[in-house]
Fold this protein.
Amino acid sequence: MELEINQTIHYFPDNLAVSYGAGDVGLSLKQVMAFLYKDNQQGLAVAVDNQVIARADWSNTFLKTKDKLLILTASQGG
């Protein structure tokens, strides 16, 4: 499965995909975030195709090939 993440193409193995509806197959946003940020997912915000997704909805947000993700990380500064 091909996803664009922060303007870079990433490929995910097809065996990670799950069925989520009327014959649709994809990856959950939660799966992708766990794969990319294994140990620390604090302070992350995600938009899929310009739509911000609340963390509570990551599990039931399914991605399809060619989706565009923007992942932002909060940081301290002054």
